[in-house]
Specification:
By secondary structure, the protein is of the alpha+beta class. The protein has seven helices and 26 strands. It has a six-stranded mixed β-sheet, with no helix packed on it. Strands 16-13-17-21-20-18 form a six-stranded mixed β-sheet, with helices on both faces. Strand 23 and strand 24 form a beta hairpin.
Length: 408
């Protein structure tokens, strides 16, 4: 009598799988100092404070005339111009009953308490007529109104962008302490894979995943070791896994994670390390693997190009950000938008559909959602998060994740 087959465990949901991966993270700790000009995309290791006020002193927001507001109460005051103050120069104290010609960014002279923009003034023979009644403080940037000396400006775990670099520079920070770059090894399995520039043999395909994944890793500021294409054999896969684990924090593979006779990633990882998670209730991208080989984490992505792309965005990107030491949420922001299509057939898995936003702010769906149709990722603006069992009618409000929330 045959025994009953073992009951298969239910696949993890997208949220469960991501939480499992993020819980396993061991963030980088090694710190290095880089020039602020070279800090784009790096993760700040320690918080930064300012040693100065920004602005350093009161200065003008406008080209015009620095005055005492009390001297201009008539609305047509005529005042001799006593001095000219350009940005980067310090004027003399303003004498009562006079005005100072002043240019944007210049320091407000002592005694002045307002700036009248030049469009509200008439100049003749070095006498300015102020055709306006200013109030004290008008068009003046106050000392420290942006940043106070001793105040915190950047928190640890901040992923530095152009605006954070500019903020650091604005308080004179020429260098910043950042966590070292994440070291990622990649390789691609499949006897059918060829590189662009090579002739295609019968049954061969060009290795698009190599270009897609390397671009995604470069967007995230990783240090990449590319081990190329690995033949479809268990021995070769085990050997390159051992090589990839040396000196790297993360190993990413593409292909070979399914259950076919030529899919060797799963047994190779189990032989060289351990597999902690395999298969997720997601479409595209069900055969996603996660584990460890030596001291390196391992993520095995599906071989189909859209599956590889989508699972990287959903799982690998937030995992990498956490490894890099990014604080705060690593989950991309999403927006609720109306469907300009219908899709009545529901799937039992959590689908991520390639779509774009039309001129009316509604979502259009790419016609072919196959996991091999890479053109959908170029045509689209992002992904629709379609929960299991959901059919879509025109006008339904859907969760849309733009690619600009996922690629960097």
């Amino acid at each position: 009598m045959m025994s009953a087959p073992a009951e298969r465990k239910p696949m993890l949901s997208v949220a469960e799988a991501l939480a499992f991966m993020l819980d396993a993270v061991r963030p980088l700790t090694a710190v290095e100092s880089v020039d602020t000009l070279q800090a784009n995309g790096r993760v700040l290791a320690t918080g930064q404070t300012s040693t100065l006020n920004v602005p350093e002193r009161d200065n003008t927001q406008m080209d015009g005339y620095a005055v005492r507001a009390s001297d201009c109460a008539s609305g047509a005051a005529s005042l001799p111009v006593s001095q000219r103050i350009a940005a980067g120069h310090v004027g003399q104290p303003l004498l009562p009953g006079t005005a100072a010609r002043i240019f944007t960014g210049a320091l407000i002279p002592d005694g002045a308490d307002a700036v009248v923009m030049q469009e509200q003034c008439t100049l003749s023979d070095n006498v300015v007529t102020v055709n306006h009644v200013p109030v004290a403080g008008e068009w003046i940037r106050r000392q420290g109104e942006d940043i106070r000396a001793g105040g915190a400006i950047l928190a640890p775990g901040t992923r530095l962008r152009s605006q954070e670099m500019g903020l650091a520079a604005s308080v004179g920070l020429a260098q910043l302490p950042v966590l070292r770059k994440l070291r990622v090894a990649v390789f691609f399995t499949g006897d059918e894979l060829a590189m662009p520039g090579q002739p295609l043999a019968p049954g061969a395909v060009y290795n698009s995943n190599r270009f897609t994944l390397r671009g995604l890793l470069e967007n995230l500021g990783c240090e990449i070791t590319d081990l190329g294409i690995v033949p479809d054999s268990l021995e070769a896969t085990r050997a390159v896994l051992r090589q990839a684990a040396q000196g790297n924090d993360l190993i990413i593979t593409s292909g070979g994670v399914s259950v076919g006779e030529e899919d060797h990633i799963k047994p190779a990882v189990e032989a060289e390390g351990r597999l902690n998670m395999w298969q997720i209730a997601v479409k595209p991208g069900k055969p996603l693997a996660f584990g460890e080989v030596g001291d390196a984490f391992f993520v095995g992505l599906p071989g189909n190009p859209v599956s590889s792309f989508v699972t990287f965005l959903l799982f690998v990107r937030p995992f990498i950000l956490r490894l890099q030491g990014v604080a705060g949420s690593v989950v991309p922001r999403s927006y609720r938008l109306a469907a300009n299509f219908e899709r009545l057939k529901a799937d039992r898995r959590n689908e991520f559909l390639r779509a774009r936003v039309n001129d009316d702010g509604e979502l259009e769906l790419f016609g072919n959602q196959s996991s091999g149709v890479l053109t959908s990722t170029v045509w689209g603006d992002g992904l629709i998060d379609c929960p299991p069992g959901l059919s879509i009618a025109r006008g339904d409000m859907l969760r849309f994740i733009p690619f600009n929330e996922l690629l960097y």
